[in-house]
User: What shape does this take?
Amino acid sequence: MSVLIDGLKSLNIDYSNEQLELINDYIDEVMLFNPKYGLVNASGDTFVIKHILDSLSGVLSIKEFGPKKIADVGSGGGFPGIPLAIFFPEVEFHLIERSGKRCNFLRNAVLTLGLKNVIIRESAVEDITERFDLVTFRAFTPMEVPITECLLSLLNNNGQIFAYKGRKETIVEELNVIASLISFSDIIPVKVPFLVDERHFLILK
Assistant: This one.
């Protein structure tokens, strides 16, 4: 609990007792079902840092965009979608995941947490035809031409891709591959509390 609270304070994220309880309930759900579904390879404080705080490190930047409808692509165990949905209750989140097994976990978690703003989409991202204000993903795939075209097709006219990424050098290499597809890109450094690994947000239009 102290790592979570200290991390939220370090990220300058305001939180209510209800949000804190929901995050902790979500952590319990992931840990409970992790042996069955293979959701993450971490536990305890390491899990909180690498998955919860990393997911929530995008809160202030996303708040600046002011999206009403977000797609979390390749949501897996719900990162970053579920932590973000807890902190943006007014935003509609679509968690897109092709694995039926993981979708079963996501449905159960959303039901257990009582999240009314989350929709689980058991689908390949290529089969989604809706449009979104923001498309997020984390540990999904490198930015290559086919997947970038697919992700861009999910955006509405003013939409943006908001990707959780690691080393800047790797991001620059990926951008060189997809340069002809995008009209705007920005690399934003982010410090995830207690995490040594280099982290960035990649913004694309």
